[in-house]
Amino acid sequence: MTDRSLRPSDPSFVGGHRLLARLGEGGMGVVYLGRAESGALAAVKVIQAGHGDDEEFRARFRREVRAAQGVDSPWVVKVTGADPEAGQPWLATAFEPGPSLAEAVGRLGPLPPRAVRVLGKLLARALTAVHETGLVHRDVKPGNILLGADGPRLIDFGIARSPHDTALTSTDLVIGTPGFLSPEQAAGGESLSPASDVFSLGCVLAYAATGRLPFGSGAADALLYRTVHDEPDLDGVEPELAAVLLGCLAKDPDDRPTPAELDTALVEDVPSGTANWLPPEVVRMVAERSAQMLALPEIEATLAEPATATGRSRRGFLTAASTGAAVLAVGGGAAAWAALRGTHGGGSGRPAAPGWAIGVQADLSGPGKEVGQAQLQGAQLAVEQFNARRDKPFTLQLRTADDGGSTGHAATAARRLAGDDSVLAVLGSSTDLTTKAALPVYDAALLPVLTMSAGQNLYQNIRSFVRGRPLHNTVAMKLVFLWAATSAASPVGLLMDRSGGDLSWMTIQMANLVVRQYGRATHPRVVPPGTTDLRPVLDEMRSAGIQAFVYAGPLDGAIRAARGLAGFTGPKYAMEPALDARFAAEPTADGWTVLASAIGPGAASVRDFAQAFRTRSGHAPGFWAAEGYDAANLLIGRLTATGGRRPARRDLIAPLQAAKYHGITRTFAFDSKTVGTPMLATPASFVHQVRDGAFDYLGPAPDIALPLRGK
């Protein structure tokens, strides 16, 4: 379990609050769980000393304090104390133990319509109180909404300001969270009206009702573009609620309701002090976390307390059994639950000491089982080789969780691994959608997760996640570099099959952008999800004179595209889903080029691995097996670096994100400065071509934009 104890450098008291534990930390400072002199719990945000010397930062913090103190609403977390002039400025708020809306929906799925209406009414009242002070919150999002038994709480006024304030940030920076920004925010507008918060609240309620962002997901620029130009996706929202949300999501701020009008439009009885507005599974989550608070008075003495008969102080008992989570939005929620759960178990028996294990979550039985099974087999070989070493400091186990490629099963599979105390890190999941669905579970447990095949961009604050492969749009950029180096024929036909989700979007948007930057023409087309007859659009593209072709979509669509382009002699490209024996076996796919982040089993760097794999398994490794092998060895390297002392899960996160590892598929190094998730700083992609019913590995794709042929 993670140790959340106060460190020697931490203060014992801040502004009259006795500090009990660390809830989280970030670049700006630390959030502590504190107890005021009254006995009330508080989340105490303390800014790092260095920032106190930065007058611009201190001015922003003063503004945050004023904003939060000026709002009076039961649905806005209350400020209980602050000192922006202290050597280390601090801000305390009432502690809220409930989960965030983002965590509840991420774990349990969309809320029922009544819960969404109640949520909307109470948050509309919260915004009314915010706007009455002359402020615009500017960051209304699920992560800034905590769920309580009696209603939600809006938190975090870090970027709130009056519409007339002078910006203290760069005008080139979009402030807020992509996916929940208003069109005027997405366009970089500095002067925002309260109507901007109403649009963001509409996005929040659409997310609560469907579990999806109303303008999709993917790269930030794509999200911002769709927010400004596209209509929201409200499929599955009941008609009356959808009509209200459409009003909130109007592009013109003048066409949106005020918060008070939204409160009226959401016709629903608001429960008074009861939890019956939430579905039972969310109520249980809230109740479990609230119940933990009842035990806290027993640990009030936290200073210089002598060890008990078990050799641990009460403070140590609080923190040594906790699994903290980092937040800098004051208010508690998931961080506090993670920091305190398991602290006061009632059993007298001592559980068996956990072992050392790596978890693998993957699609092992569903439509993508070839990828998932290959990664698992590669990881198994790495673990077996490690355990065969005479100098091994511990014996390593492998735990598996099959999510079947289903988002509905992904969180369950993640909970199975997160609940196993032996599991110190996880490889997975093997698909974009299952990875996205599982990450909130791993994040709450601060369990390190490394993915090798999920290339979707995630604009979420997932602290324990590392992507060991490039994003889909980076692979698409390498595809264009390859096109430029080998043919540069244009116009390039770009077919986005929406059945492929974010992979399709990210691929075609990047390819369209980069080809045009070369000064060459494109001919982009889109087909809706579920399209089974591609011939009409392919015939139209050929009639338009395309000289090259790129398909972005699922495997079955790639096969249909190959059949529909039979006889087309220009270069033809497909993306990772086509890296499958079924595509290579299609006669019309001969000559197609597939770009992927998976290396070929015939690459020189993986030959020794391939031979060992054959010896162990009796057959050649498939695509993604070498990536699973590399991922397991990367995690093993972080575990052995502890010198044989079993680490806490959270203590592996920073070393993993700072790791540099020379694997057989690539050199792994991560850029921790990227927003959300550390990106692979060495984003190699690989070229495969179909020849005679099989894939021929051609090598890595170009890393730079090469001059066009003929120029």
Describe this structure in words.
The chain is of the alpha/beta class. The protein has four domains: 13-96 and 298-340, Phosphorylase Kinase, domain 1 (2-Layer Sandwich), CATH 3.30.200; 101-265, Transferase(Phosphotransferase), domain 1 (Orthogonal Bundle); 356-470 and 602-680, 3-Layer(aba) Sandwich (Rossmann fold); 472-596 and 688-700, 3-Layer(aba) Sandwich (Rossmann fold). The chain contains 23 helices and 23 strands. Strands 15-14-16-17-18-22-23 form a seven-stranded mixed sheet, with helices on both faces. Strand 22 and strand 23 (694-700) form a beta hairpin. The longest helix has 20 residues, at 113-132. The relative contact order is 0.09. Keywords: ATP-binding, Kinase, Nucleotide-binding, Signal, Transferase. This is Bifunctional serine/threonine-protein kinase/ABC transporter substrate-binding protein. Belongs to the leucine-binding protein family. InterPro entries: Kinase-like_dom_sf, Leu-bd, Peripla_BP_I, Prot_kinase_dom, Protein_kinase_ATP_BS, Ser/Thr_kinase_AS.
What tags apply to this protein structure?
single chain, 711 residues, alpha/beta, Phosphorylase Kinase, domain 1, Transferase(Phosphotransferase), domain 1, Rossmann fold, 4 domains, seven-stranded mixed β-sheet, 23 helices, 23 strands
Summary?
One of its GO terms (molecular function) is kinase activity. This protein is an alpha/beta fold and 711 residues long. It has 23 helices and 23 strands.
